[in-house]
Amino acid sequence: xxxxxxxxxxGMGSRYGGIKQMDPVGPDGEFILDYSVYDAIRAxxxxxxxxxxxxxxxxxxxxxxxxxxxxxxxxYVVQSYAKMPEGYTTLEAxxxxxxxxxxxxxxxxxxxGPFAMVNADDFYGKDSFAEAAKLLDDKDFNDATCGxxxxxxxxxxxxxxxxSRGICAIxxxxxxxxVERTTIEPAEGGAARYQDDDGSWKPLTGMEPxxxxxxxxxxxxxxxxxxxxxxxxxxxLQEPKKEFFIPTVVNTLIKQDGWKCISRTSPEKWFGMTYSxxxxxxxxxxxxxxxxxxxxxxLWR
Length: 301
Description:
Blueprint: E1 4-9, H1 32-42, E2 47-52, H2 54-64, E3 73-78, H3 100-106, E4 115-119, E5 122-123, H4 126-137, E6 145-152, E7 163-171, E8 174-186, E9 192-195, E10 201-204, E11 209-211, E12 215-217, H5 221-236, H6 246-255, E13 260-265, E14 271-272, H7 278-291
Parallel strand pairs: 1-2, 1-4, 2-3, 6-13
Antiparallel strand pairs: 4-12, 5-14, 6-11, 6-12, 7-8, 7-11, 8-9, 9-10
Helix pairs in contact: 1-4, 3-5, 3-6
């Protein structure tokens, strides 16, 4: 069965202060997303679709060149804030794309079967992609089923500032709810805390299952996504900063459309490039994984 990896690489990097999707971290100039593609290939994925900003297409094509030839099919899709369903026009004050839900919607014509999605600036680890492949092959995965590979919260935090994470509720192996917390930071003893809408801080154990946007979907999700996207725009079209998030899409699929969301857990410790200070940590972690033989010194040589 054909499996597609959808890589969300159109982020603006406002907290990072640069183009983090294309910041070299590997010994042969690899980006984090190189490692995601490498892990996806060895997990059995047959196509990768990069969702990008227009200005990133040429440098990404140059970076990959013929490195992926014969290894995996490649497509590039531009996510622009101007890409809208027929009958809708983006507010002129809008200066950035509409979020992860919009990014996936932009890929609807590039994907022909089941797919998993990841962020370009997050390092998920090989076992995470193996779990995603198992999800897509699960006998219970069908046209009304999606999936998540969740992480333990305290395996996903940055030492250099707060992060946004989807906190999951899971029962009997199924996701029942996911709540996006936009300001989470570490606390003592492996715990964490988040800032509520009223500005107060609330405790977290650090053991909560957490979304890092490693989701699995059937092709049928695009019809549901389109309907949700239009409903979102009917309410928020004139709001220049509102975003359409995939966790909200999944919650609606579960609670209104009767979909099931199978949950699997990754044993990996996340690292990524939320802040510029994170880069040193990523470089060190990639170096350790390379020295341990998890990855070759040059992924595409």
